[in-house]
Amino acid sequence: MTRDPLGDARRRAGLRRRLLAWYRRHRRDLPWRRTADPYAVWVSEVMLQQTRVETARGYYERFLERFPTVEALAAADEGEVLKAWEGMGYYSRARNLHRAARAVAAEHRGRLPDTYDGLLDLPGVGPYTAAAVSSIAFDRPHPVLDGNVTRLLCRLLRVEDDPARASVRARLIAAGEALMPRSRPGEFNQALMELGARVCTPTSPRCGECPWGEDCRARAELDDPSALPLRPERRPRPHLEVAAGLIRRGNRLLLAQRPPGGMLAGMWEFPGGKQEPGESLRACLRREVREELAVDIEVERPLAVVDHDYSHRSIRLHAFAARCLGGRVRALGCADWAWVSPGGLDGYAMPKADRKVIARLGWEGRRRGHFRTEGWLGG
């Protein structure tokens, strides 16, 4: 019978010692590890939830330059925050961060709560963020359970049940609590996440480099340790065909702001929507613009087709040149609308698919002058 990797206090102490020694030798030099500012730690943890380290690094530094304090973030409007987040996806993170910053500024005098429960009370802060920030910024002994740590512990303990189940998560959290040292719990949590990210990877784990390799039940007992954790069978993602109108008036384009709540809330986009069964793309665009903005348009010609994948679906966006035929623009199915000049596009937070259209047409970064697409808009 294989021994319990956690075992008694002596065995747990050995696991801690080897992990922390490995971490101190191999930890990456990351900007959020050079600060003790709880606000900066919080921003980094929110960004890293669903964004790779390499991508988050640049966004983190730019975001803190733009919003260096909780008060600065709280004072900004949502559009500014979404613009600073643009391109990183999962925009609900930015909106929740903004809401929580306003709560911290209004209710906590700009100081982040220093306990797990206090952090958990903030809008949009869940158990992972509360545990990570309370341990890293305030040395509170709360175990973290992100994807990297879940994978690491499932292999160490040979957990062959779905980690999404509440009972399995409770077991993993209990394991994290048993391993947690009395001093510097934040460093320990970061070491767990680093080991999962760099050694105990989803595929082809480098077990020979792991400080816990000799204790890992998956390595000792399974032909393929990467079989854990169990992964639920993925359902095919739905695919949508979407039409969008680059609707001109003089040398300006019409943008619509998505409603609050739901996917991409508050972002600005070229008006349009998904194609219904039996509907042509041109008819789809005319219908969607009428429903969103109360105007009739003439759809002139295709301009660009781009593909984009979201976490839960994929789309093919067909962008058409169009012009208004009549009606007064009103926000019926959207939050707001705006006529935007060439130099104004960069000032709006837009979904990545719309940015792909802009790049395809050669308008990316244009600051002044006219749009030029074979004489279509401006001249």
What brief labels describe this structure?
single chain; 379 residues; seven-stranded mixed β-sheet; 41% helix; alpha+beta; 14 helices
Protein described:
The protein is α+β, with helices and mostly antiparallel strands and 379 residues long. The protein contains 14 helices and 7 strands. The chain has helices at 9-26, 38-48, 53-66, 70-75, 78-85, 92-107, 116-120, 127-138, 147-157, 166-179, 185-198, 217-221, 281-293, 352-360; strands spanning 239-249, 252-257, 268-269, 272-274, 296-309, 314-326, 336-340. Strands 1, 2, 3, 4, 5, 6 and 7 form a 7-stranded mixed sheet that branches. Strand 5 (296-309) and strand 6 (314-326) form a beta hairpin. The N and C termini lie far apart (79 Å). The model has no long low-confidence stretch (mean pLDDT 93).
Short description:
With 379 residues, the protein is an alpha+beta fold. The protein is 41% helix and 14% strand.
Largest sheet: number of strands, sense, barrel closure = 7 strands, mixed
Number of alpha- plus pi-helical segments: 14
Tally of strands = 7
Query: Mean pLDDT, as a whole number?
Result: 93
What is the radius of gyration computed over CA atoms, rounded to a whole number of angstroms? 25 Å
Helices and strands, in order, run as HHHHHHHHHHHHEEEEHEEEH
Strand proportion, as a percent range, falls in: 5-15%
Shape: elongated
Class by SSE composition: alpha+beta
Instruction: Please bin the fraction of helical residues.
Output: 40-55%
